[in-house]
Design goal:
The chain is an alpha+beta fold and 227 residues long. It has a single domain (26-205), classed as Thiol Ester Dehydrase, Chain A (Roll), CATH 3.10.129. It has helices at residues 26-37, 126-144, and strands at residues 39-41, 53-55, 94-101, 106-113, 148-157, 166-177, 180-189, 195-205. A hairpin with a 2-residue loop joins strand 6 and strand 7 (180-189). The radius of gyration is 17 Å and the shape is globular. This is Acyl-coenzyme A thioesterase THEM4. InterPro entries: HotDog_dom_sf, THEM4/THEM5_acyl-CoA_thioest, Thioestr_dom. Pfam families: 4HBT (PF03061). Its EC number is 3.1.2.2.
């Protein structure tokens, strides 16, 4: 899979900025600047850069148009939005940016949790943490293979994450077995001294779930071919 920026015009899809905004705290900015200095932004036809980190783009939808510009509102609701990108208020919920490094088979996410993600008083809801883990590991698996679906996700919570804080979510490919990919993930404090959450995921790629790209003008849907 390659992340493609060619799929849709700005008028047809709202591009969610993963660039700094006024809600980003000091730790979020410092980590972003660190990885950004080591990276190149993903561009059309050049989505990984080997020994360099690649900053991944982010949209509020995965796919909206098919071959020839046919609008898919009859198949996918036109008002649908990705769960982690459906709140406009900066800093209110999921603030994150992902970086990928092909040669290390590794993905890193810088995540700042907003006030709308509260579970225990003053801390992030476990479901929000699991959502981010699924987002990062699923993206990672898709970048290494083809579009995938989560088959299994095991999450072990070690210590709570305070609301408003910034954490690192790091995923690593453990092994591949045919169409299955096994990825492990750790959520830590920004300096790595505190382990918040550990997880392992099993992802399965479809034969022709979506051809070649998540987001591409020429993609075709094979909704019945995922087995």
């Amino acid at each position: 899979l390659h992340w493609s920026t060619k799929l849709l015009s700005p008028a047809s899809l709202i591009y969610i900025t993963f660039l700094p905004n006024s809600s980003w705290g000091k730790e979020m900015m410092e980590l972003y600047n660190h990885y950004n200095r080591l990276s190149k932004e993903a561009t059309e036809g050049q989505e990984d850069h080997g020994e360099e980190w690649t900053r991944l783009p982010s949209y509020n939808r995965t796919l909206k148009y098919a071959t020839g510009g046919a609008y898919l509102s009859k198949i996918i609701q036109s008002k649908a939005r990705l769960f982690t990108r459906n709140i406009r208020d900066p800093g209110a919920a999921f603030e994150y940016v992902l970086f990928f490094r092909q040669d290390k088979l590794k993905c890193v996410c810088i995540f700042q949790a907003g006030h709308l993600l509260e579970g225990p008083p003053g801390h992030v809801h476990g479901g929000a943490i699991a959502t981010m883990i699924d987002t990062v590991t699923g993206t990672h698996a898709s970048l290494l293979s083809a579009p995938v679906m989560t088959a299994n996700l095991n999450v072990n919570y070690r210590s709570p994450i305070p609301l408003g804080s910034t954490v690192l979510i790091e995923s690593i490919l453990d092994k591949e077995d045919g169409r299955k990919m096994y990825i492990s993930c750790r959520v830590t404090s920004t300096d790595g001294s505190k382990l918040h959450t550990e997880a392992t995921g099993n992802f399965k790629s479809g034969k022709l779930f979506i051809i070649k790209h998540y987001m591409c003008i020429n993609c075709k849907f094979y909704l019945n071919n995922f087995t």
